[in-house]
Structures are given as C-alpha cells and as structure tokens.
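The instructor's notes for this session suggest beginning with a concrete chain rather than abstract definitions. Hand out the sequence below and ask the class to guess, before any prediction is shown, which regions might be ordered.
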Amino acid sequence: MQVPEKYKFLIWLACYNASPTLSLLHHRNMAPSGICCRCGDHDETFLHCIRDCRFSSNIWYKIGFTGIDFFTKQNAYDLIKNGTSDSRSTLFLAGLWWVWRNRNLMCLNNETRSMFRLCNNIHSSADAIKSSFHRDGSAAPPDRFIKWNCNNYPRSILNIDGSCLGTSIRAGFGGVLSNSAWVYLSGFLSFIPNSNDILLAELTTIFDL
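After discussion, reveal the predicted structure:
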C-alpha cells in the first residue's frame, strides 16, 4: 500500500491482534478493565474501537462509509481488506488513522475534537496521500534548474544552518563554503550545550564567522 509507514504499522498491529486496545491490555493484566472508556457499553476490541463505538461510527457515516457491508465485517483483517480494495481506499485508510488517533486523544489526553475538524483532517490526509504517492508513472517529473553563479562572476557562497534537539537540550550550527561551481572549499560545525533555542543557534553561526 502506498501510504505513510505509520498507517502500515497500525494495520499490521490490527491484523495480528496486537493493537493496544483496552480489551487486549486487560487480557494481559495491564489495564483494570477492558470496557471502552468512551461509550462504556462494550469491550474495547479493535473493531469496537475503530468502527462500532458510537464516537467512531459517527465519523465513518460523516465521511460517506454507510454501507451495511462495511459494518458487518467480523474481524479487522476483513474490514481492512474490504476498505483497501474499495475505490475510496485512500479515504478509508486516512479515516482509519484519524479514528484511531481520535480515540487516543480522547482516552489518553482527555481531548475532544469537533466532527468538522476530524472530517477535515481525514480529507486533507487523503488528498496528501494521493498527491504524494499516486502519481502518473508515465509522466516524467519536470526539470528543476537550481544553481548559484552570481551572474557568472567567480565568487564563493557560504550556506549556514542551525538546529536543536528538545530531548537532549542541545543546539548545533554549521556551515559549508563552496565556489560558484559547487566545489567544496571548507566547512565547520559546533554546538551549544544546555540550549534548544533555534534562533540562538542561527545567530551564533553568523557571529562565529
């Protein structure tokens, strides 16, 4: 399937009955109860979580999945197989991801999103997948001419950049010097400890020149 890897991983978990629903976590003594914490009516299996819980089924109805066949599949494999073989497979996969994500936001972060926002996210994700993966293979990509030559004068160019990591509280910066023919001349790099300020990293790069 030509979709982001996170979609594939969710599908893999579902098909191997390994998605961390409350039913599975309770079975493994990792949760006090397997009852769905959103509706409180049934065990939170993957199918209930993704499709049958009223908080999920309303989303599917809203984006156009209203057929009886969609709601009568008895296991995750059949549901996913049916959805990915449909002409709206991209919309189905985007819906699957956002329904799962909405469940996590509600259960883990106590965050509720409006139906309009969820449907908009689903359609936007489907459009992004189509534009990124579903391209006409017969059409050659257009040529992109990117160069720097300062109007053919012999000059050198310095590219600099800064970055930061929030987990290790560390910022870094560096630069590459090349001539007008893009031949590498020199380069440098360094880091700033105990800082995750990207602006400081960028300005330090200029200052250290």
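Then share the key points. The chain has two domains: 5-133, 150-207. The first strand starts at residue 156 and ends at 165.
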